[in-house]
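To fix ideas at the outset, we first show an illustrative case, written as a sequence plus integers encoding its fold:
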Amino acid sequence: MLSVVQRVREAKVVVGGATVGEIGQGLLVLVCAERGDTEAQADKLLAKLLKLRIFSDEAGKMNRSVQDVAGGLLLVSQFTLAADTTGGNRPSFTDAAPPDDGRRLYEYVVAQARAAHPLVQTGEFAADMQVHLVNDGPVTIPLRVAPG
């Protein structure tokens, strides 16, 4: 599974003019399931997200996790992270999971996140979303969870 993790001061997702998910301080996570990804990879991704120490402590060191700072998680599906641009100027998305698998794994990540963390918001799978954020730092980290 692929993700892009952004430490934010605030973020929201708007669909059709309505806000569908919104957090203050926390992590905006763009999530992409690739062909062959499993729930085990989704579990590893979530565990990494919850423990990733990218929030500052009193000394200004990135030493705290989203759990440590009681921050929010805003999980947004983003199949375009699987883009392959090696064959020209038009990206190919053949490495992205088929829509049914992508939805199933995204919804699994969301359900597991809600069971493990008190503040989880989401975008809307397969919707035309506008994502608004104030990146804190900026801190933006690509994260890939490999099989096994």
Strands lie at 2-15, 18-23, 26-32, 55-56, 62-64, 72-77, 120-122, 129-144. The domain at 2-136 is CATH 3.50.80.10 (D-tyrosyl-trna(Tyr) Deacylase; Chain: A;). Helices lie at 39-51, 99-116.
